[in-house]
């Protein structure tokens, strides 16, 4: 039962990645009890990072390599292969990739070929990152079965928990994480864990939720889930990807800079409003102190 | 009334762009009567090209600059700005960009900010490339109006022709092209033209269709449309993006290499089957000889 | 090239159908040049009418039987069969039916069986009323071909005109009408006509649009299309189904009562606002006088 | 923590409801430990039943009135009101209704008005039956809050469990049931229960699942969930609505006749194949003996 955080990528004002801030953030999250770090995910603006930036993110987190899932997906398979090879110098837990995206009507067999090539070349276990809402493709358990493709794990970002469960039924040895913040409780309880972007700013809550489940105190676990879901609701009003930078700064006490356009940072006024809203909310729950 | 071709990007076996083939192809299409060339579009695998590759495509086609619409979209706005600046050395007709993609739930105002920045910096007219099925966002006429954003043109890749018409109603001076092959006849007839991927392999048919419309022979125009739609149907069975390379080779008599993974080239057997199918179809219609 | 109006069903304050008003309306529309009347369609609240009410609508319009397409669809096939038999006493042009609706995941063959039974029993030609947005099912040309089901006609309510064209390509003898108000011009120009709910309140505009096309004056035809599309835009702000009653009253000078809950009539203030808005719009265009 | 079964409506060969079979089935389910019966739901072909048939279903089950939720939805609000009044003679637990369906683009306030009228007139608590996939409308907790409409309960047929949870967060006193068979375990565990069509044919499994949860044996509960999900998978291959009649006959030992067109009964060969498949599956699990 693992808490996996798809880590934010902090950018400097000039648009370059702030590796020091990335390291600080990862170290803090692991220290607070998060189990694994998912690098270059959607929350980390993976599809907006160049091949070189993806590499540097891994390099920056080399000290925590055994806790890292390294996302390598791109629309240029040569680059993807290069990233996979690059990862062989690091003792990471797994590589992961979303499917091709943007292009509509890709034949199923191209999607499968993509993942088969990853499996052939990767020195590490290969995890599927399934995110139909973003990519337009559902690399479902049925599709994997149809093409006899067995993968080591899956991050299924999907509001349908039954869909995530199906991976486990079809491939009992597969490591299955649902990737929705609002289903984290259930994913911890009945799958192998959760990949939760909110763990960037609320790591302690996730750890408490997990501990509640371990103790068998499901009611308390559900209280944490509701709290987390409420913060998701607040973040979405501002644009979740950018709000997460502000929320993390507010709750963790260090700056992560901001995102990079076209994921635009919140404007000053929005930042302040969000900070006030979240501080009020968390104080009302006694979480901040 | 213009025929715009979103030009295929030919790749060498090593994954690099084959600039010579790109030039040959562009030259041939223009000679056959195509009016404009849309560079780095979806058919050209734009989202799978690096910033450098996008630049080189423009450089390779510099001789035809006045016939070129240069697509600059990326998920890194610094790169996009660099591409726009790069274009200032070329006397192109316009730059264009699709909206941000992949990331779900981006606030409307970020989408608009993206295009506003293009307008601010671009030395050329700015065209919207609206493709909701690929990007997840509809930069609709209503959205543009809401934010008072007037653009010089739009390629609306959308099966709803009424949607394309709405741009014209809201912004009478806007250059409006529908981007669907199966609606090209209508787009030529009542908008400013069509952006049609099938014009890569069937340029003469598109020119004949346009000429029929100019002559007022709509019935004959519709015959060409049906023919084109039938070829789309055939291409989709194989994976349209890759099939277009084979179809163009078959009808135009020169090689364009192939696409680049994860847009995988057709396998030998598929190539042959597609060639046979298309030759049979075109011969039955007396087009090939 | 026919203009087909999916006629509004006028209701009395007690919820019963106002047959006299229905007759008056049909007579007026035909006199103004509308070609055919589609009874019990979506605009006529067909799915909200009982079997008996559907019969009475046909009875009330018996004088115009040869101009009538009689929609018989329901979720109880015994009722549907009864309606088909009932129609044998009337010399109507065709019966029509939407597919089953509401129930998700019906197997294709049940959908086809439904229409096959209509064909077996009907004394009149059978038209498909394809409306995927309402029913959840696309009875596409490909589906009909797959099951070897040839129908006499189709009303394809679909923003994708290419989809409507495909029926004609697959079944050249099929009578094909697109059912979208915003595509009526194109449907008149290149298919067998249009089924247009706005012809309830703007019959003369549709007739003028058709005449423009017949004369070859496409530019003028497009002017009418834009006008019609603008009225659709206005109507949708109020709830199109109910707004049509008010718009028809305003332009045609007689009352049609109102719809029946849960298609709620506009409130007094909304009615007045809509009337003012439409009168202003039409006067500005010189249509009303 | 309640198991609610949306009861099948058994039809005679002549298309009339077989009330005796309905009673037998209800009695058996309740005896086996199902808590409540949802009458005229989707599984019961509610939208395909006439107003009179809906009444007769309630009449037939009068002996179990206190265990009944009576679904009254129709597209004619006068009929709906009549059904609500009819229910006042029965000591039922609640009435319920899906929202209006079929008609696209109904304004939010019409949807809310519909439910407000139910609340005004109903002598019983009013439950929302939210089923966006079937109706096209999501009567979400946010929508209810926006219009200040508080309802006594909700059956949320929705693969997104977080959506169901939101009702509970917004309206803590609301009775919340998720309506998906594949999420029943979670719905029992953290909401007020489940509405599960599969409880028609697998009542004992649902009861065992519930008992496992009560005992705190979640692992065993999940085993039952997977079993149930597998049966859903099998049923869907045949057309779930019709397959349920066959499955119930097979597991419960009495006949329920069949559905009514256009929900067509399985053909002889399909029935036999399904029976074999399910018997094999259940025997392999030791459930049938």
TrEMBL record, chains A, B, C, D:
Keywords: Carbohydrate metabolism, Lyase, Schiff base. It comes from the Archaea. The keyword Nucleotidyltransferase does not apply. Pathway: Carbohydrate acid metabolism; 2-dehydro-3-deoxy-D-gluconate degradation; D-glyceraldehyde 3-phosphate and pyruvate from 2-dehydro-3-deoxy-D-gluconate: step 2/2. The active site is at 129 (proton donor/acceptor), 155 (schiff-base intermediate with substrate). The keyword Cell membrane does not apply. GO terms for molecular function: 2-dehydro-3-deoxy-phosphogluconate aldolase activity; 4-hydroxy-tetrahydrodipicolinate synthase activity. SUPFAM superfamilies: Aldolase. Pyruvate binds at residues 43, 195. Belongs to the DapA family. KDPG aldolase subfamily. This is 2-keto-3-deoxygalactonate aldolase. It comes from Metallosphaera cuprina (strain Ar-4).
């Amino acid at each position: 039962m693992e808490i996996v955080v798809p880590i934010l990528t902090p950018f400097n004002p000039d648009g370059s990645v702030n590796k020091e801030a990335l390291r600080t953030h990862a170290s803090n999250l692991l220290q607070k009890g998060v189990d694994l770090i998912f690098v270059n995910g959607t929350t980390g603006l993976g599809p907006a990072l160049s091949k070189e930036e993806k590499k540097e993110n891994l390099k920056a987190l080399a000290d925590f390599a055994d806790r890292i899932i390294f996302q390598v997906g791109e629309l240029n398979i040569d680059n993807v292969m290069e990233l996979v090879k690059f990862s062989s110098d690091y003792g990471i837990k797994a590589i992961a990739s979303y499917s091709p995206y943007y292009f509509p009507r890709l034949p199923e067999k191209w999607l499968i070929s993509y993942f088969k090539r990853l499996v052939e070349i990767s020195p590490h276990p290969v995890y599927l990152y399934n995110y139909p809402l973003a990519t337009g493709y559902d690399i479902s358990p049925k599709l994997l079965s149809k093409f006899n493709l067995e993968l080591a794990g899956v991050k299924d970002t999907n509001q349908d928990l039954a869909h995530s469960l199906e991976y486990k039924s079809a491939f009992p040895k597969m490591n299955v994480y649902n990737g929705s913040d609002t289903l984290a409780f259930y994913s911890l309880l009945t799958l192998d864990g959760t990949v939760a972007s909110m763990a960037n700013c609320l790591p302690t809550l996730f750890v408490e939720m997990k501990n509640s489940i371990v103790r068998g105190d499901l009611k308390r676990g559900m209280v944490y889930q509701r709290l987390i879901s409420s913060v998701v609701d607040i973040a979405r009003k501002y644009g979740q990807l950018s709000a997460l930078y502000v929320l993390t700064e507010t709750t963790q006490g260090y700056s992560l800079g901001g995102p990079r356009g076209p994921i635009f940072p919140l404007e000053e006024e929005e930042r302040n409003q969000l900070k006030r809203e979240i501080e009020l909310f968390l104080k009302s729950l006694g979480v901040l102190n």
